[in-house]
């Protein structure tokens, strides 16, 4: 059941956002956002999320971004976190979804053409980083999403 699934999540090193529902109009999926308190490279984070949840988070509209920001503010999240946006022609990790929305911070993206670029999210916007970058000094959470229901 969903209750037992969510109970098992509490045993992990996670923080569940109180504003749990983000409805993506593009896919009609309802996502639950979970912060993982582990420091990983983007590739490690993606593997972890795919193994234990669904994938790294996607943000496909201003509405999604606003709900994500509201949820982050509710838990006083002030750091940066990986999301599932990366470049081999910029797209989302989850099902290789094409991009329909971006929220770059000033000056980004700024890494020259490479398939090693991926994205972190922070309050000032999205920033491109290299996949191998661990950012131990300031990454505190990995942002993931869990699909727990699909709207019919």
TrEMBL record:
Origin: domain of life: Eukaryota
Entries under Pfam families matching the protein: Lectin_C
Gene3D superfamilies the record matches: Mannose-Binding Protein A, subunit A
C-type lectin domain segment(s): 31-128
Name this protein carries in UniProt: C-type lectin domain-containing protein
Lineage: Eukaryota, Metazoa, Chordata, Craniata, Vertebrata
């Amino acid at each position: 059941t969903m209750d037992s699934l969510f109970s098992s999540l509490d045993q992990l090193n996670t923080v569940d956002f109180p504003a749990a529902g983000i409805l993506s109009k593009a896919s009609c999926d309802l996502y639950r956002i979970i912060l993982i308190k582990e420091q990983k490279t983007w590739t490690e984070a993606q593997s972890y999320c795919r193994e234990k949840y669904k994938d790294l988070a996607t943000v496909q509209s201003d509405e999604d971004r606003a709900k994500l920001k509201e949820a982050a503010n509710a838990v006083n999240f002030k750091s940066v976190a990986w999301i599932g946006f990366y470049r081999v022609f910029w797209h989302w990790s989850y099902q290789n979804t094409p991009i329909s929305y971006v929220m770059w911070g000033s000056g980004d993206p700024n890494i020259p053409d490479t398939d090693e670029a991926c994205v972190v999210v922070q309050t000032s916007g999205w920033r491109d980083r290299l996949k191998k970058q661990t950012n131990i000094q300031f990454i505190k959470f990995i942002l993931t999403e869990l699909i727990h229901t699909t709207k019919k």
